[in-house]
Amino acid sequence: MKKVLFVLTNHEDLGDTGMKTGFWIEEFAAPYYLLKDKGIEITLASPKGGQPPIDPKSNEPDFQTPATIRFNDDKETKEILSKTIKLETVNQADYDAVFYPGGHGPLWDLAEDENSIALIEDFYNNNKPIAAVCHAPAVFKNTKNTDGTSLVNGKKVTGFTNGEEEAVQLTSVVPFLVEEMLKSNGGIYTKKADWSPYAVEDGLLITGQNPASSEPVAELLLEKLK
Question: Domain DJ-1/PfpI, which positions (predicted)?
């Protein structure tokens, strides 16, 4: 049985707005169920362990999908989610791939988290896929190749667009823009129209543009695990 590690944010403050953030339910639920239903064993981790914060906005009626509805009724998965293991205890040798769901939270903690950075580099150097959707490609901000270049340098990648960030009126709130960071790290950044599903695979890296892209990213990851 293949094993996939999901890494979730612990960050819940949306900058200085007084509003809350965290991970986006669909970006966790859609990939989680797609992989679980195919017999993949999933372990959940976060920098601090325990219950990762859910972005309250992702619970709103407008953002419900079959996967979020399933999650809302799924006591077993909620229980597992409340007990994520600490990232520092994780060893890539125990897993076949790693998946990062988005939400704005990762921009603050996972982008800078030393354990996450080391883990991604370890997965990469051991020829294991790394998938990230929407804001989660933020995790590639500080990851490096063995030669010191950025991990995304020269790689085809995508992530939440400047236009999408503008549409949710958080351009001046976030610590950095995902699209700009990927480009400045040398990534070959491409995108589709705002809010369109779009996933890109280049070698071991699989990235998705927005919440609608979370299932396509999981499908690419599933293919890679075969």
Answer: 26-223
Tally of helices (H runs) and strands (E runs) in the chain: 8, 9
Residue 146: its pLDDT value, please? 96
Q: Which two tokens stand for residue 78?
A: 């909620």
CB 215 within 8 A of CB 135: no
Domains of the chain: 3-225 (3.40.50.880)
Per-residue pLDDT at 188: 98
* Residue-level pLDDT at 157: 98
The pLDDT, as a whole number, for residue 181 is 98
Taking the CA atoms of 110, 115, 117 and 122 in sequence, report the sign of the dihedral they define.
negative
Please report, as a single letter, which amino acid is at residue 220: L
Count of other CB atoms within 10 angstroms of residue 73: 8
Q: How far is CA 209 from the centre of its chain?
A: 11
Give the span between the Cα atoms of 201 and 224, in whole angstroms: 10
Cα separations (Å) of 79 from 23, 32, 43, 64, 89? 16, 14, 13, 20, 20
The model's pTM is: 0.98
